[in-house]
């Protein structure tokens, strides 16, 4: 107990000292990392980003809506298909000279041939994810069983090189050839593994010159200004282009971010949902201003009697009476499909919806007003259309004026759909009622729809 308290005090004082140093500008995270770097002019790793694969199962704008939550001019380096000693070792040396941390996606069969290569990646502090066992370019056509085998074997082979230490392997996976499909994506998500696409490739797997690899990498990074760069640590052209890519990134003020997975001891870096988009939609995009649809949560404690089949019968006495008094024709019965009585009989009660279900957000209210004004215009047009008898509509309006209370009671009945077949009186009723409101509804909706 005392030991715990002492440890806590020691931790706290360290935090306070660290915070004080940061506050005085004596030490920044970048400076702290740079202090471990023998090269004073190195590009360095500016920060470590901790991500939770379960919260964001697919990233990389080449294929998915989301990508890593990077700031402007932040780049994440990734290398696929290794380890292959001849080139992977050179890539490691280049990264070490610039004190840059990257993410490697290893192939299981490569790891089996070169387990030492996997251990070197870990020893250098890089993140290691996997890239299948045999690098098939057909994962988008594979059945689940084959996908599972490729993924699991690739992980097992890489883990074998790490003596089975799962803490050293990140739950990150890149689909070979980026051949994405629902089956591999769903399987990986079910395993808590994050699928990494990329934000820009440099085409270093093609037969192009190192100069071309460099040009493509820089052009594409500059176009998006931040993101995940896809490279391969098994290609000589990549080895040749990499020093210049890193030098140019430093010259132009880019920063390298190292990504690691969240663990129980290492929580994910706090982020906002919009940070996971390369270019978050602005306030001027309608979807960002659209009100959220409320979640319908029903209380389980109180119930209402379930309606019985007879309640749904069109021969409702009120409707019939109303139709006769309005001197319109008795509604014609429509032949709806008959529900199974046996099914209805089994339900005796329904839960009462919670009160907040009916709370309409302010913005949604505006939308409803706008929708209602459109509907009212249509109803008004229909009421004056040649197909609708004008005297009948006038007669009804006059009756409404004489019996305002009765008219007021008709609205809920119509709203609850109890008189769906009494179309003529209800249509004219609605047209009269809504038409009165239209100018005010239009004015309100129009004035509030203007962006402020
Ligand atoms: Zn690959």
Describe this structure in words.
Helix content is 46%, strand content 13%. It has 452 residues and is α/β, with parallel strands linked by helices. It folds into 2 domains: 28-280, Glycoside hydrolase/deacetylase (TIM Barrel), CATH 3.20.20.370; 298-331 and 346-449, no CATH class. The strands form 3 sheets. Strands 1, 3, 4, 5, 8, 9 and 10 form a 7-stranded parallel sheet that branches. Strands 2-7-6 form a 3-stranded parallel sheet. A two-stranded antiparallel sheet has the order 11-12. Helix 8 links the parallel strand 8 (200-201) and strand 9. The longest helix is centred in the last third of the chain and has 27 residues, at 423-449. Zinc ion binds next to loops.
Topology record:
Elements: H1 2-24, H2 29-35, E1 45-51, E2 58-59, E3 74-80, H3 85-97, E4 103-106, H4 108-113, H5 115-123, E5 127-130, H6 144-161, E6 172-173, H7 182-190, E7 194-196, E8 200-201, H8 210-224, E9 227-232, H9 236-251, E10 255-261, H10 286-289, E11 298-305, H11 317-325, H12 341-345, E12 349-353, H13 362-383, H14 390-402, H15 404-415, H16 423-449
Parallel strand pairs: 1-10, 2-7, 3-4, 3-9, 3-10, 4-5, 6-7, 8-9
Antiparallel strand pairs: 11-12
The structure holds zinc ion.
Mind telling me the CATH class of the largest domain? Alpha Beta
Structural Rg: 33 Å
List bound small molecules: zinc ion
Query: What general outline do the C-alpha atoms trace?
Result: elongated
Calculate the terminal CA-CA distance, rounded to whole Å.
58 Å
- Give the oligomer, counting copies of the same chain as homo and different chains as hetero: single chain
Domain module tally: 2
Number of strands: 12
Order of helices and strands: HHEEEHEHHEHEHEEHEHEHEHHEHHHH
**Share in β-strands:** 5-15%
Mean pLDDT: 76
CATH superfamily of the largest domain: Glycoside hydrolase/deacetylase
Q: Architecture of the largest domain in CATH? A: Alpha-Beta Barrel
- Biggest β-sheet description: 7 strands, parallel
């Amino acid at each position: 107990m005392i030991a715990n308290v002492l440890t806590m005090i020691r931790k706290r004082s360290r935090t306070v000292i660290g915070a004080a140093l940061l506050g005085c500008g004596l030490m920044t995270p970048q400076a702290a990392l740079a202090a471990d770097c023998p090269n004073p002019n190195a590009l360095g790793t500016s920060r470590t980003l901790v991500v939770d694969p379960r919260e964001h199962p697919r990233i990389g704008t080449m294929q998915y809506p989301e990508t890593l939550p990077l700031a402007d001019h932040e780049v994440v380096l990734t290398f696929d298909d290794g380890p292959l000693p001849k080139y992977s070792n050179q890539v490691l040396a280049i990264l070490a000279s610039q004190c840059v941390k990257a993410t490697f996606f290893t192939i299981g069969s490569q790891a089996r041939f070169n387990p030492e290569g996997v251990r070197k990646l870990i020893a250098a502090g890089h993140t290691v994810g996997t890239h299948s066992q045999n690098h098939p370019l057909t994962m988008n056509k594979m059945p689940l069983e084959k996908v599972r085998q490729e993924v699991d074997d690739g992980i097992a082979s890489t883990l074998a090189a790490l003596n089975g230490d799962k803490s050293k392997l990140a739950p990150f996976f890149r689909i070979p050839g980026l051949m994405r499909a629902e089956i591999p994506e769903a399987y990986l998500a079910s395993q808590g593994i994050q699928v990494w696409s990329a934000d820009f490739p440099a085409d270093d797997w093609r037969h192009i010159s190192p100069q071309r690899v460099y040009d493509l990498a820089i052009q594409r990074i500059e176009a998006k200004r931040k993101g995940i760069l896809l490279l391969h640590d098994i290609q000589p052209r990549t080895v040749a282009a990499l020093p210049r890519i890193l030098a140019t990134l430093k010259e132009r003020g880019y920063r390298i971010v190292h990504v690691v997975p969240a663990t129980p001891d290492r929580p994910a870096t706090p982020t906002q949902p919009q940070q996971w988009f390369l270019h978050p939609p602005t306030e001027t995009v309608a979807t960002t201003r659209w009100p959220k649809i409320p979640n319908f949560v029903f209380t389980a404690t109180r119930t209402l009697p379930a309606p019985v089949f007879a309640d749904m019968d069109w021969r409702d006495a009120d409707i019939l009476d109303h139709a006769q008094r309005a001197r319109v024709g008795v509604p014609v019965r429509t032949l709806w499909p008959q529900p199974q009585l046996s099914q209805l009989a089994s339900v005796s009660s329904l839960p009462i919806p919670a009160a907040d279900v009916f709370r309409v957000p302010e913005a949604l209210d505006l939308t409803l007003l706008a929708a209602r004004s459109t509907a009212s215009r249509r109803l008004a047009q229909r009421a004056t259309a040649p197909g609708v008898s004008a005297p009948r509509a006038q007669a009804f309006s006059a009756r409404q004026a004489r019996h305002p209370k009765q008219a007021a009671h008709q609205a809920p009945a119509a709203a609850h759909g109890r008189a769906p077949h009494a179309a003529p009186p209800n249509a004219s009723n609605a047209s009269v009622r809504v038409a009165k409101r239209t100018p005010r509804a239009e004015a309100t909706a129009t004035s509030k729809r203007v962006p402020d």
